[in-house]
Amino acid sequence: MGLSTAFRLLVAIGLTCWALWAADPRQVGEAFSKTAWPWVLLACLLVLVDRALMAHRWLSLCAPIAHKPSRAALLRIFFVSTFLGTFLVQSVGSDAVRTWSLARTGAPASQALASVLLDRLLGVVSILVTAVVGAALAPYVLREPAIAWAFAAAAAGSLFALLFVFSTRVDAVVRHAVSRLPAGRVPDQIGKLLDALQAYGTAHRLLAAVLAASVAVQVLRILQAWLLGRSLGLDVALTSYFAFIPIILLVMLLPITVNGFGVSQWAFVWMFTRVGVSEANAFALSVLFVALGLVGNLPGGLIYALGPREPAAPAVTS
């Protein structure tokens, strides 16, 4: 375990313990004891739907890749990488496993990485889209510095990343800078990655369809949180979930803990207590929401354990 990972783990444990102590462990236990599990099962069904949509959007982005494996193999790569990412550093671990696994099948590494990067980027953009709606419904949430910084950082980072796909001027500037590096494998691979990203720049229909699927995923996550709230008996309007959940997801993207633990508990308590939810119930809701995400990763574990082992082809680096 690296020093930075250990630090994020300590921060996650610290924030979670602080939120639990503030909410009163006894009251949190009472909240869990009253959970109506049929609502939780409905939320689990929606998780299966959102995972299917997430897989579909990545497979769509894999369409331009040369020498890619079969659709079944791509689905296996997606679900297994999602499962393994549970134990790695945030979403970066899952993305790295997916890129590496796809490249091992013989797909060009640059195109494999470009598909994963764009999938992640459009996922963040979809959270921003729904967060804008959420901020319009509850503008006071942006008065909290951490939330405002998360929103601003995600927006700025997404805009900067999109320039690599749609701006030929930015592409030219980056290529000029790369050309000054000593000749070797690194500049060559950067050039191939830029080629792969630029190839998506004209695929407007494809990117629009993937973004629409990504927004649908965020709506499903909001509905999942609402169902979990119903399971705890929370009398909170659905519009409040639309206001809070996207911004909570943005806060969870902050790279200060492991997989959003700790910050998610803090964010749920901070948000939902403002609409009359007790700290204990808000904490319980946060735990159920994070646990639901982990449940959504379990199919990948089953596929990894029970699925066939396909021999890897030599990676194509072009």
Summary keywords:
single chain; 318 residues; mainly alpha; disordered C terminus
Can you give a write-up of this model?
There is one protein chain. The protein has 318 residues and is an all-alpha fold. It has helices at residues 3-23, 25-33, 37-61, 71-84, 90-104, 109-137, 145-166, 168-179, 185-198, 204-231, 238-252, 263-272, 279-306. It has one domain. The longest helix has 29 residues, at 109-137. The chain is globular and about 60 Å long. The relative contact order is 0.18.
Spans of at least 5 consecutive residues with low confidence? 310-318
- Please give the domain count: 1
Give the topology string: H per helix, E per strand. HHHHHHHHHHHHH
Shape call: globular
* E-strand count: 0
How would you sum up the major sheet? none
Average pLDDT number: 86
Q: Classify the helix fraction into a percent range.
A: over 70%
Give the helix/strand class: mainly alpha
Percent of sequence in beta strands: under 5%
How many H/I helical runs?
A: 13
Computed over alpha carbons, the radius of gyration is: 21 Å
Distance between the termini: 33 Å
